[in-house]
Every structure is written in C-alpha cells, then in structure tokens.
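the two lines:
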Amino acid sequence: KNEVEQSPQNLTAQEGEFITINCSYSVGISALHWLQQHPGGGIVSLFMLSSGKKKHGRLIATINIQEKHSSLHITASHPRDSAVYICAVRPGQGAQKLVFGQGTRLTINP
Amino acid sequence: DTGVSQNPRHKITKRGQNVTFRCDPISEHNRLYWYRQTLGQGPEFLTYFQNEAQLEKSRLLSDRFSAERPKGSFSTLEIQRTEQGDSAMYLCASSLALLATNEKLFFGSGTQLSVL
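prediction for all of em together
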C-alpha cells in the first residue's frame, strides 16, 4: 500500500461542476502539498498545508490531520483546469523529501 | 526566464550508454531536488542538495546514478550504463527553504529519457 493514496484516479466532468479530489496518507506529516501537472511535465505548486484550509481563486484545499486526509476542491470548473492533480506529503518532522501520490487525471469537458 | 531550467528536454540513448542531465535552479534557491516519474505515476524522490552538500539519497538510486552540485548552483545527474528501466521523466525542483513547513518547490519541465 502506498503511503499516499489519491481518489479518484481519473475524473471527467462538465464545465461548471464542483470538483473534489481526495488524498489519504498513512504516515505522520509536517506538511501536505497539492500540485498541478500539465501534459509535457510542468508541475506547479498550488497549495502547501499543515492545518485547516486555504483558498486561492476557485481552488480550495483542506486538511484533517487527525484523519490523515486532505481534499482539493475546484468550484465552477473550466476546461483549462484539465490536468493531473498530485498530492504530496512531507513525512515526519525532519524529512526534506516529498512522497507523492499517483495523481488524479481531471478532464473538464465544455 | 527565471524559473527552473532543465536540459536537455528529451534524450534518446542506447542501452549501456552514459547520459548526463543538467538542472539550473532559481538563483538564490539553496535546495535542489531530483525526482523521477514514470508514466501514470507520481514522482519518486531520488536525491536532494542543500547548497553543494548532497544530504539524502534514495535507495532507488543505484550505483549507476550520481548527482553533483559543485558550486551550490546548477546540478547534474549522470546515469552510467543505462538500462531500459531507466526510461522516465527526470524532474528537478528547487526551493528557498527557511522553514521546512513553509517550503515551496518550483519544478522544471523535466528531461524525458528513453533508453532503447
């Protein structure tokens, strides 16, 4: 079992729908990241969380440390949101590396 | 362009050949990471540097892999005697890490390696 599990693996929705991507992890962490990867490899950091909730535009990320779970929400989804969304955690208190989930491929149809 | 730059973007090589990739991080970033990503999977950690010191290496990194960051600026990743299983996207990321919990990573576009 991977330390970081994402669901769903693939998600197709219509433009305007509310999107939720889930991330569960099995280890203690000091931080959790949500990243966006477009075709061709480019990865962009969206959020870094250690508690609570963060919002940036139409994106909202939440984390529940006790339940070892995080969600990424997209409101009023748009075709340009189509990408792979990756959850990554920084294990423990002293670790420097990130452990990544396998990603969720999101396709928003017009 | 002041982002993380990786060269080459694509590399095709024959099995058994040596390859070297270069990463130029954002200037003043003290941390530099190498990750490897295969199709349909998330990136896997390979190694990271704080300035010129290589502080952690993954057990995934066999003796055929070596990375350097000689002056604490650009980094190179060399793979000797390449194998078909080395085919992957090699990603570099950098950060200015003041506190681990506040560290934001900036990724390059990666080098796609194909070993024939």
